[in-house]
Design brief:
Mean pLDDT: 87
CATH class: Alpha Beta
Shape: globular
Radius of gyration: 16 Å
Structural class: alpha/beta
CATH architecture: Alpha-Beta Complex
Largest sheet: 8 strands, mixed
Distance between the termini: 15 Å
CATH superfamily: Spore Coat Polysaccharide Biosynthesis Protein SpsA, Chain A
Low-confidence stretches: 1-17
């Protein structure tokens, strides 16, 4: 059995007793790529499926937040539901709000729809740090990764306040809630190349993702 698959099984087994939602933000317009990125393929799987598969290991449900609630073709043994942005046209913060509002869990992993190389181990570690905090937020130097983070439902009210004020910068939220920063040395223990934060915005990004997947031999069975 491959080491990656052993890790996959162990994480899934340890997580089985928890309620956890994963929220995928899929409300963007893919302007830089010039077409919908969700169904672009990497090694025969759609980009959205690359995001769903590792999240399904950790989740009791997956919520996909889209602009209009349109169905996204993907599959999982875990329940998937699609929700429309409650605040239309207000970017990722509105997607986080819609996803958390629809979540049946008290906490949720939040990621973008274009992040094919999520580390299950890193995400699991972040969920375990959330007990006394409202957000578990990766931080590398001065750069934060709010679209690969864990949020509690305690964030719903402050996010709504920001949206009502038309303040759409996610960073503003972090001064209103308790944040646990996941520092670079912690991230490196699970994802030393920081590929969890790689996202596909352009054709060049897509080609790089295909090359990475081919070089590293990622397959459906647990190479996360």
């Amino acid at each position: 059995m491959l080491p990656g698959f052993i890790q996959y099984v162990n994480v899934a087994a340890n997580f089985g007793r928890f309620s956890m939602t994963s929220i995928i933000l899929a409300g963007g317009k893919s302007l830089r790529l010039g077409r919908s990125k969700l169904l672009e393929t990497i090694k025969g799987r759609s980009l959205i499926q690359w995001v769903v598969d590792p999240l399904a290991i950790l989740s009791t449900e997956i919520v996909i937040a889209t602009a209009h609630g349109e169905a996204i073709p993907c599959s999982s043994a875990v329940k998937i539901k699609t929700v429309a942005d409650i605040y239309r046209g207000k970017g990722p913060l509105a997607g986080i709000y819609s996803g958390l509002t629809a979540s049946s869990s008290s906490r949720a992993i939040v990621v973008g729809c274009d992040m094919p190389f999520l580390s299950v181990s890193l995400l699991e570690y972040m969920t375990q740090t959330l007990a006394e905090f409202d957000v578990a937020l990766p931080k590398i130097g001065e750069m934060i990764e709010p679209l690969c983070a864990v949020y509690s439902k305690n964030c719903v009210a402050p996010i709504q306040k920001l949206l009502e004020l038309n303040e759409l910068r996610i960073r503003k939220l972090f001064s209103m809630v308790k944040v646990k920063y996941i520092e670079e040395d912690e991230i490196n223990s699970f994802d030393p190349k920081h590929l969890s934060f790689f996202n596909v915005n352009s054709q060049a990004d897509l080609e790089r993702a295909r090359k990475l997947a081919a070089e590293r031999g990622w397959e459906r069975e647990g190479k996360w």
